[in-house]
């Protein structure tokens, strides 16, 4: 049961990034416009998309989980600081805290790796 719950947990924490990366491809120009409104250059979108698609897949299948989780943890903190720093707006504060919480969840994976159906070696 522990292995199944571990897998489900990895799917839950990673799924949002996989869907977000796919959405960014489908709405490329809109995403570029949104990023540029924060002063983020367009060339950073491609690495973000790659990270948001590849890292969740690696976490879900349990391959190089610790590295992928570390990358997503850093990504969560960076996006929280860059995009959700208007603490006078309650929704932005909540989005900031969700990103920080996700970063914490990924840090658990950095420490523990994948426990089920995994390719990671301890």
Written description of the protein model:
The chain is mainly alpha-helical and 122 residues long. It has one domain (2-112). It has 5 helices and no strands. Helix 1 packs antiparallel against helix 3. The model has no long low-confidence stretch (mean pLDDT 92).
**Coarse shape:** globular
Strand content: under 5%
Radius of gyration from CA coordinates: 15 Å
Per DSSP E runs of 2 or more residues, the count of β-strands stands at: 0
User: How many domain modules?
Assistant: 1
Helix content: over 70%
What string, H for helix and E for strand, traces the elements in order? Answer: HHHHH
Give the integer mean of the pLDDT values. 92
Distance between termini? 20 Å
Total DSSP helices: 5
What ranges have pLDDT less than 50 throughout 5 or more consecutive residues? none
The secondary structure category is mainly alpha
What profile does the largest beta sheet have? none
Q: What's a concise summary of this model?
A:
With 122 residues, the chain is an all-alpha fold. The protein has helices at residues 2-26, 28-36, 45-61, 65-83, 90-112. Helices cover 76% and strands 0% of the residues.
